[in-house]
Design goal:
heterodimer; A: about 110 residues; mainly beta; six-stranded mixed sheet; five-stranded antiparallel sheet; B: about 120 residues; seven-stranded mixed sheet; 11 strands; globular
Chain lengths: ~110, ~120
Amino acid sequence: QKEVEQDPGPLSVPEGAIVSLNCTYSNSAFQYFMWYRQYSRKGPELLMYTYSSGNKEDGRFTAQVDKSSKYISLFIRDSQPSDSATYLCAMSNYGQNFVFGPGTRLSVLP
Amino acid sequence: EAGVVQSPRYKIIEKKQPVAFWCNPISGHNTLYWYLQNLGQGPELLIRYENEEAVDDSQLPKDRFSAERLKGVDSTLKIQPAELGDSAVYLCASSLEGMGGSAELFFGEGSRLTVL
């Protein structure tokens, strides 16, 4: 079993749809949970950052962490074609090493 | 403020040839990472530096890979000799460790290696 699991997609949705992206993990020591967005042939860039359990909202993006279930989610409201990218979840234990999921490829169709 | 700079962006070599990648992190960032990203996969850590010290190189294949970070700023990752399976994107990232633990990783655009 991999330390972080993520559905690779691809996921195609129409413009304006609500998108739900998810990751599960096995290491209960993870405390920091992140979502990175990666456009084709670019490096990942941080979207959302959450410490421990709970929700965090930033504009159209909401991150949720459920440590009891070892499950994290990213919701994108009113999705736009510019949201088309690969979304990587990442986790770390007190900022030591970051473990990434394999990424979910998202396409938002106009 | 300039981001993480990597070069070259693309490199094509024949197997058994050497190759080197260079990374210039964000000014003031004390932690530097080299990651390997295969197609359809997330980044996997090769080595992490805190200032000049390699604090985690457990995943670096030391028979053919080497890295250095002179003066705690720029870093070079070398492969010698390259194998077909080394074809991938090599990502450099930097961070500024702050109080409370985890810090944001800033990535460069990556160096895409093709080994023929």
